[in-house]
Design a protein that fits this description.
The complex is a heterodimer of chains A (about 325) and B (about 325). Chain A has about 325 residues and is mainly alpha-helical. Helix content of chain A is about 75%, strand content about 5%. Chain A is built from 15 helices and 4 strands. In chain A, helix 2 runs parallel beside helix 14, helix 3 (about 45-70) crosses helix 10 and helix 10 crosses helix 12. In chain B, the strands form 3 sheets. A 6-stranded parallel sheet of chain B has the order 2-1-3-4-5-11, with helices on both faces. A 4-stranded parallel sheet of chain B has the order 7-6-8-9, with helices on one face. A two-stranded antiparallel sheet of chain B has the order 10-12. The longest helix of chain B has 20 residues, at about 40-60. Chain B has 10 helices and 12 strands. The radius of gyration of chain B is 22 Å and the shape is elongated. The relative contact order of chain B is 0.14. Chain B has helices at about 1-15, 40-60, 75-90, 100-115, 140-155, 170-180, 200-210, 225-235, 250-260, 275-290; strands at about 30-35, 65-70, 95, 115-120, 135, 160-165, 190-195, 220, 245, 270, 295-300, 305. In chain B, helix 3 runs parallel beside helix 4, helix 5 packs parallel to helix 6 and helix 7 (about 200-210) crosses helix 8 (about 225-235). The chains are: A mainly alpha (about 325), B alpha/beta (about 325). The interface between A and B is medium-sized, with 31 and 38 residues.
Chain lengths: ~325, ~325
């Protein structure tokens, strides 16, 4: 672990060169993108990329806390699909009674958050009370949520009623002052996450538990409660991401949210959070998410390589971004 | 001869073992094992639904047939399913849609060598001559029919973009046939990226096409799930009037829009998930009649137009 772990940001503390690694990678990607295609920096494209990043972004911010406190959650992708399924079915069922309107959408949102909270609580309780490894718990719930959504959809697709869809659509496609809603919500989540990690007791406890849970326990930290809270927080954020996701295509199926968990975990690690826990960096996670979305976007915009190699390019950039930041601190 | 005696003993053994079966009346109950991939995406969901519906109907029509259905989410699971069917259910025939060709070849071959009837659906095995009956869609025709429509409805110099599926032989066959069909028409393919037959991925690929290209005349989405994502991206950019979209497979929502003469969706190309029904019906014939059913049955890909769309519309299917 680097020195930064032992001295959490006090006053004017400039991040070291290693911490700037992911940021450097992001800037390089932006320059590369602008160089390869004139439309890269157009308002339309920037909005597309940021709005696309929002789902994984919100989830990744929550994941930062889970990983920082020494946990892991593999179930978030399936959980998102499951929450979306329940939310759509509930809204369709409530439609005859409530009619198309704000109350129906608010009810749907409340249901999404409630299901997310319960799902996170389930994961958290299994980890803290049943004392099962988070990897195993969430591997199990990943399969459970994925099957449940396939079952709910009868193997097909769950679609939101057309009228409701038209009404709900602006939540993804429109925004405030020209900035799309998903981007605004993602920004708010990221700022709140950064503040919570750096300036609250909760954030410090997460880091303490992640670096050494025994010591944290002896220091009168309620380890189980904080751990449980990280999973609940993540569940809520998955619910929030789903709220922004459903109006986009108005449907969900067994293949929704496939591999989101790995993208979120990759973003967290690219951003400089330690996979073993003990140190978390929320702004880094945001940079990590943007890097992942930008790679995809640039590969689509510029015919650099055969599309068969897209995955390889992504892999190389992920590894490079991590090498850039670890290079210094490992020495 | 040998197979017949084996069948008879197998059937006797089943009748003796199965306590719920009225032993005297049903001396010759034939059991057909059905192994298909599980419903992980729209097309497979439809295929699963059609499989279950057909089994229900066949059981009602032919009381001396019984079916064992297993769905697998991975190659290994499918191999286990087939081994279990052989070991514990005494199947007389196997209808299998291989998850992947290579790994399934030798397990299916073992079934054949045990003297069972084998029907292979859609994805061929990597060794020729194992199956008694092969039922499949026509991937080359799928690409060709779409390509011919583009050639007939676009002028030379007009521009299109293409979304490809998951990188597989099947996808290559379709795309090659499509390119061959539009060859010489002067239609320019601006871009070809993989949308993985997934709505979300197709949505972002199409968003990127739209920021990259100022003028697009048509989109070959090559799949109805991808078409849904593509249409959403087009309407986000407000360019609905500029281009039309052709999907593929025959999803009910898309077929409905063709029926309603949606200008954005002029036609669709079939690749029916109900092809599993064809395989089951024909295999059943083998056990209830003397109809010769060995050989190959290739289901053509046809164009769904507003005029004939009603024939392809299954409102109860999940796909």
């Amino acid at each position: 672990m680097s020195d930064a772990t032992l001295r959490p940001a006090t006053g004017l503390h400039l991040p070291g060169l290693s911490a700037l690694g992911p940021l450097l990678a992001l800037i390089l990607l932006v320059v590369l993108g602008a160089f390869l295609n004139d439309n890269f920096l157009s308002a339309g494209n920037v909005t597309n990329v940021l709005a696309r990043s929002a789902f994984i972004g919100m989830i990744a911010v929550g994941m930062t806390f889970v990983i920082t406190s020494g946990g892991l959650d593999l179930s978030v992708g399936s959980m998102a699909a499951f929450i979306a399924g329940v939310m759509i079915l509930a809204m369709n069922a409530l439609l005859p009674g409530m009619g198309v309107g704000v109350p129906l959408v608010l009810a749907g949102m409340a249901i999404a958050l409630a299901v997310g909270l319960l799902a996170g609580l389930g994961n958290g309780l299994l980890v803290t009370k049943a004392r099962i490894e988070p990897f195993i718990v969430t591997l199990g719930t990943m399969g459970i949520f994925r099957s449940l959504v396939t079952w709910l959809a009868d193997g097909g697709t769950i679609s939101l009623d057309f009228g409701v869809r038209q009404f709900y659509r602006p939540v993804y496609y429109s925004g405030l002052f020209g900035v799309a809603w998903p981007i605004l919500v993602f920004a708010a989540v990221a700022i709140a996450g950064q503040v919570a990690m750096r300036h609250t007791r909760f954030g410090r406890y997460c880091e303490a538990i992640g670096s050494n849970d025994k010591v944290a326990l002896y220091s009168a930290v309620n380890v189980d409660r904080i751990r449980l809270l990280t999973y609940v927080l993540l569940g809520l954020l998955v619910g929030l991401a789903t709220i922004m996701y459903v109006p986009r295509l108005g449907s969900t199926s067994g293949s929704t949210g496939m591999l989101w968990e790995l993208e979120a975990i990759a973003a967290v690690i690219i951003g400089g959070t330690a996979l073993k826990g003990g140190y978390g960096r929320v702004w880094g996670t945001v940079v990590g998410v943007l890097i992942l979305s930008l790679i995809d976007n640039i590969l689509n915009l510029a015919d650099l390589v055969s599309p068969y190699l897209n995955g390889a390019i992504q892999g190389v950039i992920i590894v490079l971004a991590v090498v850039l930041q670890r290079g210094k601190s490992a020495a | 001869m040998e197979r017949r005696t084996f069948l008879a003993t197998a059937a006797l053994a089943t009748a003796a073992a199965g306590l719920s079966v009225p032993v005297a009346a049903q001396g010759k109950k034939a059991i057909i094992g059905v192994s298909i991939p599980s419903a992980t995406h729209g097309f497979m969901g439809g295929l699963n639904w059609h499989a279950q519906e057909t089994i229900k109907r066949l059981k009602a029509t032919y009381p001396n047939l019984d079916f064992v259905l297993a769905t697998a989410g991975a190659v290994g699971k499918q191999v286990n399913d087939i081994e279990d069917m052989m070991a514990t259910r005494n199947i007389d025939a196997l209808v299998v849609l291989p998850f992947e060709s290579e790994p399934l070849t030798s397990p299916v071959k073992a079934v054949k060598e045990a003297g069972k009837w084998v029907t292979v659906v859609d994805r061929g095995l990597s060794q020729a001559g194992i199956e008694d009956l092969y039922v499949a869609g026509d991937n080359t025709a799928f690409g060709r029919v779409a390509g011919e429509y583009f050639k007939a409805n676009l002028k030379s110099g007009q521009k299109i973009v293409v979304l490809r599926g998951i990188p597989t032989t099947l996808d290559n066959e379709r795309v090659d046939a499509f390119k061959k069909a539009i060859d010489g028409s002067g239609i320019e393919i601006l871009d070809m990226q993989h949308g993985n037959w997934n709505r979300d991925k197709a949505f972002s690929v199409m968003q990127d096409y739209l920021s990259k290209h100022k003028k697009i005349d048509a989109v070959w989405a090559a799949d109805d799930d991808m078409a849904v994502g593509v249409l959403e991206a087009i309407s986000q950019a407000g360019r609905q009037k500029e281009m039309w979209v052709v999907g593929g497979a025959g999803m009910k929502e898309i077929v409905k829009r063709i029926m309603d003469k949606d200008p954005q969706l002029p036609v669709d190309v079939t690749y029916p998930p109900a092809l599993i029904s064809t395989a089951l019906e024909i295999t059943a014939l083998r056990f209830v009649s003397d109809t010769p059913v060995y050989g190959r049955f290739i289901i053509g890909s046809t164009l769904i137009t507003p005029e004939n769309a009603a024939r392809f519309y299954f409102p109860n299917s999940p796909f």
